[in-house]
Amino acid sequence: MRKGVGGKDVEMLDSGLILRAAVAGTVLQLILAIAGHFSPWVALHLFMFGRMMCSATAGYLYGLWFGRGYAVGALGGAIAGGLCVVPPLALSVLLGDSPAAMVSIGTGISILTGGVGGVFGQIGAFFGKLGR
User: Fold this and answer.
1) What distance in Å separates the CA atoms of residue 16 and residue 50, rounded to the nearest whole number?
2) What pLDDT, in 10s, does the model give residues 96-106?
3) Could you state, in order of their start, the residue ranges of all structural domains in the chain?
4) Contacts by 15-21 with C-beta closer than 8 Å and gap 24+?
5) Percentage of residues in the chain with pLDDT exceeding 90?
6) pLDDT tens-digit series, residues 24-33
């Protein structure tokens, strides 16, 4: 909690929204991991970009749903993006489709793309409020 305008407590992050966004991203990434296991073309050409896109989507969803500022959108998006990549990456490593080093590298990249997605989600929330 932090003090907002007028001394009222303002919530910095919403853990429920982070969880919802992370679950959505995890489902997308699990689909990608399973598709990559059965299709070498997907594993070769889509794994990294697809993981980044799924994490950015999770961050975007958080920023769009929370809609209370760019910094908190980026922070929550980074958390959601980082959370949603770990289980599918672990599955890919266990299936032998990715090297073990990809867990740390992929998580770092997904944290970054989730944060960027959170900023764009906040932009979407801003424009959504303009249309009301």
Assistant:
1) 25
2) 999 999 999 99
3) 14-130
4) 17/62, 17/65, 17/66, 17/76, 18/62, 18/76, 18/79, 18/80, 18/83, 20/61, 20/65, 21/58, 21/59, 21/61, 21/62, 21/65, 21/76, 21/77, 21/80, 21/84
5) 89
6) 999 999 999 9
